[in-house]
């Protein structure tokens, strides 16, 4: 006896997954799960392949009505779905390769914001009159006093960051 089970795809993802699992559990062997469109059943090809594999293990067929007309009850339908599964595997491998390549490029890149205090600015700050106010020195160098104090002590001596900039030590 065929039992008609309806579920709508206009649900939150968690509810949708729960409904799909309940739907698959409710299908006895020999029945067929029919979907209107292939994208109504899974988010990506991997999910679809896993779901159809689960259905096959339960001896339940799978049929798509619109678009890619697939029916796993027929040999042609199983072949078409097998091709889709192979394409899904290929797609996953491409995504892995692209992700790996992107991460390697990102790791190799020296990023970050350029320093406001470079060698020339630091030398100018060190050459300034010791009597000058830090705010005046910072204004002349087009930096903030906070930035100035990151590199130079109040008495005009260099801090560790200042030594690194002048020495190009990284």
From TrEMBL:
Pfam family membership, one: Resolvase
Transmembrane segments: none
Domain called Resolvase/invertase-type recombinase catalytic: residue spans: 1-110
InterPro entries recorded: Resolv_N, Resolvase-like_N_sf, SSR_resolvase
Keywords: DNA recombination, DNA-binding
PANTHER family attached to this UniProt entry: DNA-INVERTASE FROM LAMBDOID PROPHAGE (PTHR30461), SERINE RECOMBINASE PINE-RELATED (PTHR30461:SF2)
Protein name: Transposase
Lineage of source species: Bacteria, Pseudomonadati, Pseudomonadota, Alphaproteobacteria, Rickettsiales
């Amino acid at each position: 006896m065929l039992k008609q089970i309806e579920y709508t795809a206009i649900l939150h993802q968690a509810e949708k997954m729960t409904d799909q699992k309940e739907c698959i559990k409710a299908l006895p062997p020999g029945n067929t799960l029919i979907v209107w469109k292939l994208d109504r059943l899974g988010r990506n090809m991997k999910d679809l392949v896993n779901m159809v594999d689960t259905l096959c293990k339960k001896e339940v067929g799978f049929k798509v009505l619109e678009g890619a007309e697939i029916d796993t009850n027929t040999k042609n339908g199983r072949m078409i779905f097998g091709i889709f599964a192979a394409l899904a595997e290929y797609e996953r491998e491409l995504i892995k390769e692209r992700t790996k390549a992107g991460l390697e490029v990102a790791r190799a890149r020296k990023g970050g914001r350029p320093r406001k205090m470079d060698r020339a600015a630091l030398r100018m700050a060190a050459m300034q009159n010791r009597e000058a106010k830090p705010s005046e020195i910072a204004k002349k160098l087009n930096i903030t006093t906070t930035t100035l104090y990151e590199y130079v002590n109040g008495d005009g001596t260099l801090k560790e960051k200042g030594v690194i900039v002048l020495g190009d030590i990284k």
